[in-house]
Amino acid sequence: MFHVLQEFAGKSVSLPEVSVQMLPKPTVGFSVMSLMTFVAPMMFAMAYIFFLQFLTTILVSEKENNVKDHMMMMGMRRSAYWYSAFVCCSVRPSIDVCVKK
Q: Sign of the CA dihedral 47, 50, 55, 58?
């Protein structure tokens, strides 16, 4: 490559002197807290996905059978319906997780 530059410029080409030095860095040690900061967000996301799968399955089956509409006609409030859906969908996965361990 230097030969191409010399022929193109018609004179001698020299490169500047360059030196490289590593910057100081702190030592990295293994700690439980560093592991927890990496693992905790993934565990919360997995727990949410597990809960969401049960909630979606139950709500879709209720929507197919018009269960919510029939209960609303009988006088049930919407807040009671969503509270019961939340309780049912959080208790069952919690029991599944405890049993699997």
A: negative
